[in-house]
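Fold this sequence, please.
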Amino acid sequence: MKLWKRILIAFSLAIIFGAGLKAAGLSDIAIAMQPVGLVFINAIKMLMVPIVFTTIVSGITSLQDGRKLGRMGGKTLGLYFLTTAFAVLIGLIVGGIIEPGAGITLPDAASGGQNAPDPNAAISVRDLLVGLIPANPVAAMADGNVLQIIVFAIFIGLSINLAGKKGEPVKAFFDSATEVIFKLVHMIMELAPFGIFALIIWVIGALAVDELVSLLWIVVALYLACFLQIGLVYTGLLTLAGRLHPIKFFRGIIDAQAVAFSTATSAGTLPVTMSNVEDNLGVSKKISSFVLPLGATMNMDGTAIYMGIAAMFTAQAIGVDLSMAQYITIILTGTLASIGAASIPSAGLILMPVVLSSVGLPLGAIILFFPIDRLMDMMRTVTNVTGDATISVLVAKSEGELDLDRFNADPVE
């Protein structure tokens, strides 16, 4: 049975059991499933650093032509910026139509709340640029700073290429290491349905239903905006720019989407995404190993949508009409801030102050997002992963690195 089908069964059973335990007043039993779910999350997070580092180095060393590498990088970054800007715009439009903040009493901006993120923890554009180069690459790996790891891996890959014959043993090592890591990926993903079953039961047991009812429209707005991003932007790019059949594409990445929705981590889903685009969609390894790890850090379209909706929600809650200049500021700031967002669950909460403060909106709204953030984070991650896969296919097609026969064939079991 395909992975996504096993995940769907586990997800459905978890909802039934979780709801049953909650209705019976046995939420403590559901919450007790947390350790099992966290073990699975830790297992897929364990793969993040080695797979990002080894695959990027391996991908760079497979591109001996420096001009091709620069051209491919330019296309990748350009498409990521384009889709992210569209994501913020869609979030603003949907937020303006649905008006999720209407009738909501916003907490005092000065009362941070016990679980509110520290606004000073938000990443500024200056800090993002300065922090690109790791002062200590080992510390960057230990801290899981994916953006710094990517930069260091690119430098290592370029250096191996420049070393010529003397660099070939190191190149062979990274090629071999990549294969070993992927074997580990397949081993861990066989356990995905069990981990996801525990995760969903735990989330259902921990939800406070009365807190969620009044905030339902935020969730509706976020899901609708994400569906529009996937259905209009990604599908449009595949159809118009790539001349590819979108149904074939979505069939090929359904495993990655299922894992993304269940785990809410783009980096954790990266191994499955890479496997799907290579095995099901025919993207060459040299393209996937460069574009996807970069996208897992930079291409946070779901987070960008989230920021647009959060800005509209906050403005509506306090009765403020935003100006055109403020809308433009939100689009620019949301695009840059989402690029700096970590590919881990709930990273958008830390980046939200960047967007809100850029147009003078109070930060108290962040407190209201905490009870429902996990539910929204799941859909944001699906959007992020789908965007990463879309860009990898488009770049591969433009570089002649897409196996069209495999793309049009049925997905592998």
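The chain has a mean pLDDT of 79. The chain has 22 helices and no strands.
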